[in-house]
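Researcher: Let's walk through a ligand-bound prediction step by step. First, I give you the protein sequence. Second, the SMILES string for S-adenosylmethionine. Third, you return the three-dimensional complex as structure tokens. Ready?
Model: Ready.
Researcher: Here are steps one and two:
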Amino acid sequence: MTLQKQQPGARADLDDRTPARPAPDPQAFKARARDQWDRSARGWNEHTPQIRAWLRAATDAMLEMAGVRPGARVLDVAAGAGDQTLDIARRVGPTGQVLATDLSPQILALAQSNADREGLRNVTTLVADGEALPIEPGSFDSAICRLGLMLFPEPGRALRELQRALRPGGGICVMVFGRPERNPCVTTLMATALKHAGLPAPDPSQPGSLLSLGRPGRLDELFRQAGFHDVATTTVDAPFRLPSARHYVDFVRSSASPIQQILGRLEPDAAQAAWQDIEARLARFQAGDAWIGPNELLLTAARR
Ligand SMILES: C[S@@+](CC[C@H](N)C(=O)[O-])C[C@H]1O[C@@H](n2cnc3c(N)ncnc32)[C@H](O)[C@@H]1O
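Model: Step three, the predicted complex:
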């Protein structure tokens, strides 16, 4: 993993200075996302070892930047099956607490059972939309959101909720996918899936899409608008290493809900053809007996 700090005050590219279009209907969008993540919950959970290997170093950096320390009360938004929740629980120890929240009851139930299995009694869960958190103001020392915020139709609203949930001086760090040109696996997945579904080419800035917060400066601007201070973004190179493109496609097929939302509307034969096309296009990242999918992440940290 390579970390690269961006200049403070880095601006969004020209195209992104104008606010991105809002998702057509945020409530309907979130209802569909919840159903899809309920269906993908088991697949995401079963791929925890691969996700963990991919995100381990970036997750450690994220928790450090958010100030997750022994005894801290930590809010984990869009916690999924809880891989990073369990890391937080171990870091804060028995005198600290972590509240894992997610829109999908099915995936969050897995986070709770994973914590129970590890004997981590300082984990609690709450099914909640990250854009409307039923949480006492100022009740957390730190907050994180790992690979969730870019999927929200109104991420600025979620950041205001996170700002409200933190105590003054509390730390936050959010991980999202970075620039489209540095995430060719994601752009290949999206473009190929949309083409097979007969839909228009992807608009990476569309709210709720995988790369919607990837332009440098965009997330910093949203943080500042939400009232955060000391906003800084670090760019992280985090390639996905697997034996082959087939392994990556297997992971995406069983767990990556945004792609399934597109291909789920096709007849089985047409969907199968789309997956084969995706695999063929991703085979360009095979290097001998390893497949190394380039991937850039952004870690944006700030204080309330
Ligand atoms: C890519 S997964 C990441 C899960 C986990 N943070 C991880 O890194 O393993 C995205 C998660 O965001 C959740 N999510 C999507 N929209 C949400 C919303 N509006 N509020 C809360 N969670 C949401 C999904 O249910 C899903 O669990």
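Researcher: And what stands out?
Model: The chain has one domain: 2-179+205-240+294-303. The chain has a mean pLDDT of 92.
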